[in-house]
Amino acid sequence: TRKGAVRARMATRFLEADRAGDVPVAIGRASDFFGAGALESSAGERCFDPILAGKAVRVLGDPDALHSQTYLPDFARALIELGRRDEALGDVWHVPTAEAVSMRRFIELAAAAAGTSPKVAPTSKPMLRLAGLFVPILREIPEMWYEFAEPFVLDSSKIQRAFGLRPTPLEESIPATVEWYRHRAAAAAPSKAAATAA
């Protein structure tokens, strides 16, 4: 893809700079990520807000295809570790990421933590293109459709073996994320009420 080509050129350029001794480089890569503050991810506010409200969750592509999701705190810890380790330099590392589950299963785990029962509503590629007319960020997704139409599984065993880093289990990371979105919604409620009253 166009984005993939850009990323490959960037990685090549950085690793060449490391080999030349110009700058120390370690590259950390994640899958789609979720967690506190990760609003624009495929498992961001468009996923967790409807779950909390018990409304249908729109899912890109095949909701039953395996899809790795990287927990943001795991991503952060890995980047810190890569910055501390000389043996990480000059290499590419997939950060610790829990076992891949389908988006349907991910939503089920989040709904159980939220105490709701939302439906899963698949979004087709034509629907996505139409939505992109009104939501600019969605225009970028058709190029990456393969990530959602077939299994998209990240293997982080290399960094786990090398540095002993482990991903947070989904049974812990998803409820923590639900709580963050719950607090976010509660904090936004007074301002919405004030705006309605005005």
- SS strand fraction: 5-15%
**Class inferred from helices and paired strands:** alpha/beta
How far the N terminus sits from the C terminus, by CA atoms, comes to: 48 Å
Task: Enumerate the spans where pLDDT stays under 50 for 5 or more consecutive residues.
Answer: none
Strand order of the largest sheet: 1-6
Count of alpha/pi helices: 8
Pattern of helices and strands: HEEHEEEHEEHEHHHH
Integer average pLDDT: 93
Write down the Rg. 19 Å
Helix content: 40-55%
**Beta strand count:** 8
**Main sheet: strands, sense, barrel:** 2 strands, parallel
Q: Rough shape?
A: globular
Describe this structure in words.
The protein has 198 residues and is of the alpha/beta class. The protein is built from 8 helices and 8 strands. The chain has helices spanning 2-19, 45-53, 72-84, 103-114, 125-132, 146-149, 157-163, 170-197; strands at 26-29, 32-34, 57-60, 66-67, 69-71, 91-94, 101-102, 120-123. The strands form 4 sheets. A two-stranded parallel ribbon has the order 1-6. Helix 2 (45-53) packs across helix 4, helix 2 (45-53) crosses helix 8 and helix 4 crosses helix 8 (170-197). The mean pLDDT is 93.
